[in-house]
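pasting for ref
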Amino acid sequence: MRGDETQRERILSVIRTRAVPLDDDELSTVTGIRPRQTVNQICRRLAAEGVISRGVGAGGKLVSWIAQPVGAEPQEPGGPVIESDVLGMSAAGRPAVPEPVALETGEVQLPVLPGSSGEQRRAEGVMLAELSALLGVQLSPGRVQHPSGPRVELDGVSPDQSVLVECWAHQGPAKVAQKYKLMNDAVKLHWIARSLPPNADRRLVLCVSDELAVKHLRGNSWQGQAIAELGVEICVVRLPDDLVQDIRAAQERQFR
């Protein structure tokens, strides 16, 4: 039973810290829980208990999100949450929650958030697994509380918080507005790391899946130099070719 409880907590942690709902395959990839059917069973129990809600996502699969009234602002005790992705923001300064739509079948349809495709979320899970193997440390999505109140959501955190990671699955050169995302992520990593107990071995990592996406940070780029001086390193990991193609297709949809 203890193992089941640990898996339950891992799944809930990921659902809470992700800005968009994830399907069972994505939850299995991000949490490392196998087989996928185990994730499905745990999520069904959580839904039956009213802890999470389940509905049909944009990709046609069942996705899970923390249960709350439709249209209500997410309640975040202990201060605001700083999200890891660029999303629509509510009036309260929090990420806007997807508005569920009731279907005639009785199921729930969730809209797609720009920049938050299922392909990119799956890629982040693969990237985190690749980086974990590369660094020799287990990484999983996490949230770090800053002494001043805000809680910072990170794409990857090691159990001892010695490695903090932000992932970006973008393929190809960054567009003008996107060039500031990595700078923003680097500042966030540096800022939250300063609030943690000193650790000479701590690593702050921006993980990307295409060298072209960080080309603007190479050479004499002031942004690249600033990121380096903040103590943040850039790591490029390789994604499977089929996933790369899916991401490129998703990016084309987002920028039409």
